[in-house]
TrEMBL record:
UniProt biased composition (Basic and acidic residues): 342-351, 364-381
Gene3D superfamilies in the record: P-loop containing nucleotide triphosphate hydrolases (3.40.50.300)
SUPFAM superfamilies attached to this UniProt entry: P-loop containing nucleoside triphosphate hydrolases
Subcellular location: Cell membrane
Protein name in the entry: Dipeptide/oligopeptide/nickel ABC transporter ATP-binding protein
Renumbered residue ranges of the record's region Disordered: 338-381
Organism: Haloferax mucosum ATCC BAA-1512
Bilayer topology term: Peripheral membrane protein
Length: 381
């Protein structure tokens, strides 16, 4: 069996603060295959971004206290800074919500995409020249090649009139075009894995849908593996092949999107779906999930959702919560699953979400296998 493109196993990422240790990620396991889009969804503070930041240790990533992160079978957990830098410029790219974090206001968009192409194409001798501060693009044909490739990438990201736009500056473009330019920069290195943290959250719905659609095309054309982080279940439904539902730094449920969103088994997934703006009738008010997310200080024993859960039992407050296999690759981490109550209502509503997102829901599972699987194997295929 070949290694998945990305395998995260039992990851614990923590931050030391004056008030104590923040357990931001508390035993997360997941995989991403080539040519697959895996979504991580959950409320604010559930640990989605810290999971993503832990992969390449960027943007104040915290301390990996335990667990492993492997890319194509190679363990990155103890990788040196120079190895991580090489991987960042080569096999893995990251895109964040705000394009301003990536784009430099004083260079044209075309120059920035071309520079990303150049860095990727740089061979050892050019690296030495860089070290000696020999100016960029001393070679006219190298510049022309990089510029041509930049225009091609901008075109692939649906930037209209890319040749002309390449000389424009970031402030001259809409948020949607800026985010497309950031994606062009991310793809300049022809990465195997793209980690996208809320890449369309700041955009209007039409632009969001176009960019998500483009991600799916890139997945197919380039066999790109994508880890897509979003708090929006609609985005996940529209884009992903599999989903990991996170809460309190832990995986609550995982599986194929069509299964998890049409037959959610965890009370938290159900609550999230019930609150989803895409999941309410037009005349129904959007409801917020009652209660507050758990305090990540000091970590928690038992299920982090217990305080807010309608199905809570004394067992939920203590010890390991069992992982239940409830369908092919569909797992739920809950002592009370499968739930028998008002599932029909949730399923009806969820099907509406899925069809609105133009996805093809699979047949709901009729049988649930309560067989327990290894606690650290929540999100794996
Ligand atoms: N630098 C930091 N120092 C201390 N705690 C942090 C730090 N960064 C994140 N955290 C904490 O880690 C937990 C997980 O944060 P994370 O950003 O991963 O959540 P999230 O699910 O991505 O939510 P959001 O969408 O709001 O970013 C939160 O409780 C957060 O406050």
């Amino acid at each position: 069996m070949t290694d998945p493109l990305l395998r995260i196993e039992d990851l614990h990422t923590q931050f030391g603060t004056d008030s104590g240790t923040v357990h931001a990620v508390d035993g997360v396991s997941l995989t991403v295959e080539r040519g697959e889009i895996v979504g991580i969804v959950g409320e604010s503070g559930s640990g989605k971004s810290v999971t993503a930041r832990s992969i390449l240790r960027v943007e104040d990533p915290g301390r990996i206290a335990a667990g492993t992160i492997a890319l194509d079978g190679v363990d990155l957990t103890d990788a040196t800074d120079s190895t991580l830098r090489r991987i960042r410029g080569d096999s893995v790219s990251m895109v964040f919500q705000d394009p301003a974090e990536t784009l430099n206001p004083v260079f044209s968009v075309g120059e920035q995409v071309a520079e990303a192409v150049r860095i990727h194409d740089t061979d050892g001798s050019q690296r030495l020249l860089d070290y000696l501060n020999v100016p960029l693009f001393r070679n006219r044909s190298a510049w022309t090649d990089a510029h041509e490739r930049a225009v091609e990438l901008m075109d692939q990201l649906d930037i209209p009139n890319p040749e002309h736009r390449s000389s424009g500056y970031p402030h001259e473009f809409s948020g949607g075009i800026r985010q497309r330019a950031v994606l062009a920069i991310a793809l300049a290195s022809d990465p195997d894995l793209l980690v996208a943290d809320e890449p369309t959250t700041a955009l209007d719905t039409t632009t969001q849908a176009e960019i998500l659609d483009r991600l799916r095309t890139l997945r197919d054309e380039r066999e790109l593996g994508i880890l897509l982080i979003s708090h929006d279940i609609g985005v996940i439904a529209q884009t992903c092949d599999r989903v990991i539902v996170m809460y309190g730094g832990k995986v609550m449920e995982s599986g194929p999107v069509t299964d998890v969103l049409t037959t959610p088994e965890h009370p938290y997934t159900r609550a999230l779906l019930a609150c989803s703006t895409r999941n309410v009738d037009a005349d129904e008010r959007v409801t917020a999930l009652e209660g507050r997310p758990p305090d990540p200080l000091g970590g928690h024993d038992g299920c982090p959702f217990a305080e807010r859960c309608d199905h809570v039992t004394p067992a939920c407050h203590n010890g390991d919560v069992p992982t239940i296999e409830c369908g092919e690759n569909h797992r739920v981490v809950c002592s009370e699953a499968p739930l028998s109550d008002d599932s029909a209502k949730i399923e009806r509503k969820t099907e509406t979400t899925m069809s609105a997102a133009e996805t093809q829901p699979s047949e709901p599972h009729t049988e649930v296998n309560r067989e327990k699987v290894a606690p650290n194997d929540e999100g794996t295929r």
